[in-house]
Design goal:
Elements lengths: L5 H7 L14 H15 L28
Length: 69
């Protein structure tokens, strides 16, 4: 299906999420499907890879330890 047919199908209530998938009801999901078709057609650039998350340790507040002599 060409990308220009996605939103009219969504407005008509006939856009499905896959071959035998459910009918798409959220506009946000319809836009995601539209972007997918545009990428397949080469009309927009592929998605940029996400930046890797850094392993950050949570700092735990501890009481100052005192030495007993």
């Amino acid at each position: 299906m060409p990308a220009h047919d996605v939103m009219p199908l969504f407005r008509a209530g006939k856009l499905h999420s896959g071959k035998d998938g459910k009918v798409v009801r959220r506009k946000k999901q319809a836009k995601a499907i539209l972007l997918s078709y545009l990428r397949k057609e080469g009309r927009i650039a592929p998605r940029k890879p996400r930046a890797a998350k850094k392993n950050r340790r949570k700092r735990i507040a501890t009481k100052a330890r005192t030495r007993i002599k």
